[in-house]
Every structure is written in structure tokens, then in C-alpha cells.
Amino acid sequence: MSKIQGWGATVAKSPLTPFSYDPGPLGAEEVEIAVEYCGVCHSDLSMIENEFGISTYPFIPGHEAVGRVTALGDSAKGLEIGKLVGIGWFSGSCMYCHECLGGDQHLCARVAPTIVGRNGGFADRMRAHWAWTIPLPDTIDSSSAGPLLCGGVTVFAPLATFDIKPTRHVGVVGIGGLGHMGVKFAKAWGCEVTAFTSSESKTAEAIEFGAHHVIISRDKDAIARAANSLDLLLVTVNVPLDWPAMIATLKPKGRMHVVGAVTEPMAIPALGLISGRRSVSGSPTGSPVTIATMLEFAARHRVAPQVEHFPMSRVNDALAHLKAGKARYRIVLDADF
Fold first, then answer.
1. Which part of the chain is CATH 3.90.180.10?
2. What sections of 216-277 are H helices per DSSP?
3. What are the backbone dihedrals phi and psi of residue 78, each rounded to the nearest 5 degrees, phi first?
4. Which residues pair with 35 in a beta bridge?
5. CA dihedral 151, 155, 156, 159 (to 10 degrees)
6. Residue 96 β-bridge partners
7. Among 221, 213, 218, 223, which Cα is nearest to 170's?
8. Is the separation of the CB atoms in 236 and 182 below 8 Å?
């Protein structure tokens, strides 16, 4: 196999530079793809800057890759050369533990994040286990599908996991890279959707994405008026909120589900949960089956992230655009090797 060419991080917080590596022989259950597009997620930036404390250098970021299968290991299943596929945040798991056999491969203790100790999709080619290499529906727009493979499934999974009915009322906190897709999916799911945003300038866009109601999250009175109105509150932001006020927006048996990486401890009032049998939960991305289901749903209902495109050769400009908070709302790199 020839060397893989990409854009790598060599030390924390430095610009990416051209980087190549020898991937070695293709594993029996591995798949290699030629990358055509790769989304830029904030987790890529966090890994480049070692915010999670788990980065090992050098490595190639990128975990929202879309491309075509170019090579298959002898034991790879369900794929063929030339098939359009996607690889998200995870690219392997043990496939024999209780979680894997139960369909929760993303909860496997040995699950392999695509860019933790591995090289990702800011490259001309990349590899993953065949089960985590997900075929894309023929009708989906491959140029904007990348962000669905991480951010998209992250906000879709709670709708499926908790069996949210289309008659339910769903709130989405944060109209950003995750939240705007959360609003789109909840609307397509059939739910009444309330968007919470700290930026009044995003009100019109939130409605365009599918929100029936918009609440400015700095307006305590507006939040108070939403008490007992939501069946599911999806928190996509990574900043502390007025958690008692958020819990109070839930109906009895309602659930606040956190997918934003809030780093500070969350002060959750026990009585607010007990009095209405409310719940608080969180989740990572999703299993291969959930990702495939999400892609099928997105294709059928024309749910797509709003994206900005950069050539991959301008990856550092794309990362700076993301870090400055200017992305509207996801960034996709077009491979131009």
C-alpha cells in the first residue's frame, strides 16, 4: 500500500502541516476509503489542542469522512469496491462484548475513536472496521453528509432511543453545529419544537430550521413561562446553564438529555426531578445501526446540515473560522490532494 497523505497535528495548538504515513497491511476486517469530503467538528479542534488530555502526536484529525471504498480486508462484510460510505467518531469496537452483541457498539469498553491513537479523515485515504463503515443512501447529498456522521447522529439518537412520539414537544438548547441539526430532526420527526438560543439574531434561522417557538435563553421570564411544557429538552451547548430553570421546563416524566460537553459540574435539584418523575441523561454518538437509520431518515426527509465548504488544503483557515465561532453551522473540507 502507498503512503496516506494528509494534514497532521504534530504538537498541541499548532497549525496542521502536510503529513504522510505508511498504514501497513490492511487488516482482515478493515476497509480503506478514498476520502472525498470530511466535516470539521469542534472535537477535531479539541483533539488538536489536547483539550481532552488524550491526544497523541502526530495524528491526522477528521472523523466525519465521506468517500468510496478502495480496498477490503478478507473478512470485511457487506461492502464493495466503489461503494459510497461514511466514517464517524468511532471506527472500531471489539464486536464480542455484551454491549457490542446487544447493538450498543458505541458503548463498548474497547471502542476505538477515529482520531484517538489513530489517523482520521483530513487525508486522501483512511481506514476503519467494516461495521463502522456505513453505506450512504443513494439519495443523500454526499457533499454535506459528513456532519451527519457525528453531530447528526448525536442529536438524532435520543429521538430514537427514548421512543419520542411525533406528538411530543421537544426543546433544543443552542442553535449551533449540533443544535441546528437537532431542530431539523425534531421537526422532521413530527414534534413541536422550541429552540433556546442566547442570540436574538438566530431567531429567524431557528424558525427556518423548523422551530415552532424560540426562547431567548437569557430571558428568565420567557423560560419561566415555558414551565411544564417539554417532553424532551436536548442540551447541545457546552456551557453552564440555569439547571433548575431548565428542569422546570419539563413536563411530568420529561427528560433533559445532555449531548454538549459541559465541563463544569451540573447542579441538578433533586426535588425538581422527584416531584415530576423527571430524568437527566446523556449520550455519545450512536451505534452503526443508529447511524444507518439516521442517514436513511435524513435522506427520506431531506434533513441536511447547513454547511460551509473549504478545500482541504485550507484546513487551517477552516479551523480558525470554527475557533472564532463564525461557522454557520458546520464546515466541510473538500479533498483536493
1. 4-150+286-334
2. 220-225, 243-248, 270-274
3. 75, 5
4. 67
5. 170
6. none
7. 213
8. yes
Please check whether the domain covering 4-150+286-334 is classified as CATH 3.90.180.10: yes
Question: From CA 332, how far away is CA 32, in angstroms rounded?
Answer: 20
Beta carbons of 169 and 319 less than 8 angstroms apart:
no
Q: Are strands 4-8 and 112-113 parallel, antiparallel or unpaired?
A: unpaired
Residues 37 and 66 sit within 8 Å (Cβ to Cβ): yes
What averages of pLDDT result for each successive group of 10 residues across the chain (337 residues)? Answer: 94 97 97 98 96 96 98 98 98 98 98 97 98 98 98 98 97 98 98 97 97 97 98 96 97 98 93 96 98 98 98 98 96 98
- The Cα–Cα gap between 296 and 290 comes to 10
Its CATH architecture, for the domain 152-282, is 3-Layer(aba) Sandwich (3.40)
Please report, to the nearest 10 degrees, the dihedral formed by the alpha carbons of residues 62, 68, 74, 75 taken in order: 70
Query: In this structure, what C-alpha cell is assigned to residue 182?
Result: 437537532
Secondary-structure breakdown of the chain: helix, strand, coil percentages, each rounded to the nearest 5:
30, 25, 45
The strand pair at 30-40 and 65-72 is best described as antiparallel
Amino acid letter, residue 91: S
pLDDT tens profile 303-330 = 999 999 999 999 999 999 999 999 999 9
E strand residue ranges, 41-102: 65-72, 84-87, 90-92
Please state the length of the chain: 337
92/178 Cα distance (integer angstroms)? 23
